Amino acid sequence: MHVKFDLNGRPVASDVEPRTTLADCIRNDFGQTGTHLACEHGVCGACTVLVNGEAVRSCLMLAVQVQGDKVVTVEGLSGDELTPLQAAFRKHHALQCGFCTPGFITTAHALLSHEPDADEERIRDVLSGNLCRCTGYVPIVEAVLEARESYRGSGSK
Amino acid sequence: MKPPIFEYASPSTVAEAVALLASRDGSAKVISGGQSLMPMLAFRLAAPELLVDLKHLKNLDAISIGEDGVRLGAKVRWCDIESDARLAVSHPLLAEAIRHVAHYQIRNRGTVGGSLAHADPSAEMPGVAMTCEARMTIVGSAGSRIEAAADFFTGPLQTSLQPDEILTEVHLPPWPAARRWAFLEFARRKGDFAMAGVALHYDLDGTGRIVDAHVGVIGVADRPIRLAAVETMLNANRLDDKLIAAASAKARESVDPPSDIHAPGAYRAALVATLLARGLKKSAA
Ligand SMILES: Cc1cc2nc3c(=O)[nH]c(=O)nc-3n(C[C@H](O)[C@H](O)[C@H](O)COP(=O)(O)OP(=O)(O)OC[C@H]3O[C@@H](n4cnc5c(N)ncnc54)[C@H](O)[C@@H]3O)c2cc1C
Ligand code: FES
Ligand code: FES
């Protein structure tokens, strides 16, 4: 089936089998391998992307379901510079192997874009759907808390 | 972890969707949020020939609140319920129960209709529907019908939905402002399916006695169930520590949960007793 959507700000199109997940389409057809796949059944959050601004698990969506939609992956969040959120992850050592990081970054970005006043409890609640097997969650929460300021006021993206 | 081969259609009306489902002799399946079906496909526990996506169907995503209660369109998502401040008054039990469903990203896609149709025995929405005597509107080739929750859930992951039928709406009866209620569940981690959960509500008569007690439990049987013996014990009585202890003991002996990798049956029964006691206390606070 032919599918057309907007990926990280540019129009893309592909012929996919209906069973192709959005995650596989993004990675294999468009080479955007920042979106990681671990469990492939919805429990780890590594594959999180934004569809029309909302964080979703790209292993639980079909590519054909984003026809006409706007999809943003971790690659689409920054230009040449790290975003304040990414810089805060680096500063707080919020990643070790980095496998889970794209999922945490996209999820935290969606949260802070919609709820720039999210408190620590809300941040922990939202991040509870993402698994990290090596860093530990404390530095991740600290990084998100620090980056929160950059989402306030300007309606920063 | 790759889904099996299937065809895909995204019709724009309920009638077209029903016709597509009917055209395949039971081998077509609806996909709504996909948050239960996609894992089932990944594990190849489901292998439909055709997926019929509800994405483009209109008028199935409204939350309407009126004198006759709360109506949720089948495509209402968990995040829609979470962000609708009216529900804290119009149906606090629903609002509280849905706070326990899954995680952020899943809540952005998962739907009320999908959860009811999936009928996981541990899921919150089926538990609320059962406890509150919800009525489902179902549309199929033969027309539309309304089914009570008690008849809708027929077994583990099983409902009375026929292969050519779509659930379009669930209706929860009106919620009196003074109603007492509680929803409590126990899960190992936030957002996981409950090992057991209790939903309850009742009203008080002029003398402070319980009338019309509803006590439902999830995670302890092949479907969400009501505990009639506990309800009978509560009705026409004043809630005090003695009644709470007796109701809690009655709840424990009223359930017979199976043992599985997550917990032995006796542990789940003990959870029900504890959650009921805590719930009753909370309802009176
Ligand atoms: C990691 C994880 C954790 C989760 N934790 C919880 C939890 O704690 N509690 C909980 O309740 N759920 C949980 N879920 C499931 C989630 O809530 C699902 O969203 C929900 O069960 C199904 O809704 P859906 O719209 O995604 O349905 P889908 O996955 O699209 O469909 C599920 C089933 O329902 C059928 N169906 C869907 N819509 C209709 C309709 N309108 N008419 C007829 N049939 C229909 C489909 O054919 C399919 O058989 C979890 C899911 C994941 C991946
Ligand atoms: S790979 Fe999608 S949630 Fe784990
Ligand atoms: S940094 Fe290794 S899994 Fe999170």
Structure write-up:
The complex is a heterodimer of chains A (157) and B (285). By secondary structure, chain A is an alpha+beta fold. Chain A folds into two domains: 2-77, Ubiquitin-like (UB roll) (Roll); 84-151, [2Fe-2S]-binding domain (DNA polymerase, domain 1, Orthogonal Bundle), CATH 1.10.150.120. Chain A is built from five helices and five strands, in the order ββαβββαααα. Chain A has helices at 22-29, 84-91, 101-114, 120-127, 137-147, and strands spanning 2-7, 10-15, 48-51, 54-57, 70-72. A five-stranded mixed sheet of chain A has the order 2-1-5-3-4, sandwiched between helices. In chain A, helix 2 packs antiparallel against helix 5 (137-147). The N and C termini of chain A lie far apart (33 Å). In chain B, the strands form four sheets. A five-stranded antiparallel sheet of chain B has the order 4-5-10-6-7. A four-stranded antiparallel sheet of chain B has the order 11-12-13-14, with helices on both faces. In chain B, strands 1-3-2 form a three-stranded parallel sheet, covered by helices on one side. Helix content of chain B is 33%, strand content 25%. Chain B folds into three domains: 7-53, Uridine Diphospho-n-acetylenolpyruvylglucosamine Reductase, domain 2, CATH 3.30.43; 63-172, Uridine Diphospho-n-acetylenolpyruvylglucosamine Reductase, domain 3 (2-Layer Sandwich), CATH 3.30.465; 180-284, CO dehydrogenase flavoprotein, C-terminal domain (Enolase-like, domain 1). With 285 residues, chain B is of the alpha+beta class. In chain B, helix 11 (241-254) packs antiparallel against helix 12 (265-284). Chain B has twelve helices and 14 strands. In chain B, helix 2 links the parallel strand 2 (28-31) and strand 3. At the A-B interface, strand 4 and helix 3 of A face helix 2 and helix 6 of B.
